[in-house]
Amino acid sequence: MIAHLNDIDMFYEVRGSGRPVYLLHGLALDHSIWLEMTDTYADQAQFIIPDLRGHGCTPLGNSDASLEQIANDVVQLADHLGHQQFTLAGHSLGGYIALALAEAHPERLTGLVTVTSHARADSPDKLESRFEQARQARLEGIKSMSDNLIERMMPEGELAQPDEHMCDVVSNSSAEGFANVQTAMAKRPNRLHVLRSLTCPVLAIAGGKDRILPKEIALEVAENAQQGRAVCLPEVGHLPMIEVPYTLGALLVSM
Which of the listed residues 96, 97, 111, 251 has the most CB atoms within 10 Å of its CB? Predict the structure, then answer.
């Protein structure tokens, strides 16, 4: 489906019926990473799964390289669908966008879930790395770094082959979209204070074998929330919606 927003036509899918749960994907991914999970739990919630600006089938539009702009896209999608309140779950990059939305519109949320994500700002080294990767993507395209990105998404110590569909999504993602969100992530502030002010339930999900994000930092999200709950999935890497979709789905519908 397509939602005609300010400067973009946002692609999204709706699976199931019941209370609305919005799912935001991570960097260089798209809505399809959630499909196995949402199809399994379609009788327990209505899942709204968009392709974020510059990802999948959604164009980059007049981007300003900010997470706030993408968070506003999600709010506009909710308005388009008539959802005044909803549960919001974000994976990695999607978690940063969810926190930006929570800061701007806390009244819209009935629950917040971060999936292998966190609330800190980037360190100076990480910030510079993001700017460099944005530059590289614009010059060389995403394929020059997709193999490394896919490898880091896999669980630590795993020898199994990564999901074939996920590899295709990453390898064929938009270089300009990738550069836009790398720049946006580099510019994001620390949002731990946002968590302290939220009155809705907050769930932080970490992967015990995540190569990208230490579980202690991922679980800080719950530790700083008034109604926080922390769950570490011991044998899981950065992609629980692909690695353990049934477990992740059960956690989401329990919110």
Answer: 97
Query: Domain-by-domain residue ranges, the chain?
Result: 2-120+190-253
Strands (E), the chain: 2-4, 9-16, 20-24, 46-50, 86-91, 109-115, 202-207, 228-233
* CA–CA dist 162, 33 (Å, integer): 13
Judge contact between 27 and 178, C-beta under 8 A.
yes
Taking alpha carbons only, the member of 15, 1, 13, 232 closest to residue 115 is: 232
Alpha helices in 16-163 (DSSP H): 35-40, 67-81, 93-104, 124-140, 143-153
* Residue range 93-104, pLDDT digits in tens: 999 999 999 999
Residue 215 to residue 232: CA distance in whole angstroms: 7
Rounded distance between C-alpha atoms, residue 93 and residue 182, angstroms:
9
C-alpha span between 164 and 170 (Å, rounded): 10
Q: For residues 180 and 53, is the Cβ–Cβ distance under 8 A?
A: yes
As a whole number of angstroms, the distance between CA 104 and CA 100 comes to: 6
Torsion angle in degrees (nearest 10) through CA of 132, 204, 22, 236:
70
Per residue in 7-22, pLDDT tens? 999 999 999 999 999 9
50-93 per-position pLDDT tens digit: 999 999 999 999 999 999 999 999 999 999 999 999 999 999 99
| CATH code reported for the domain at 2-120+190-253 | 3.40.50.1820
- Taking residues 179-184, report their average pLDDT: 98
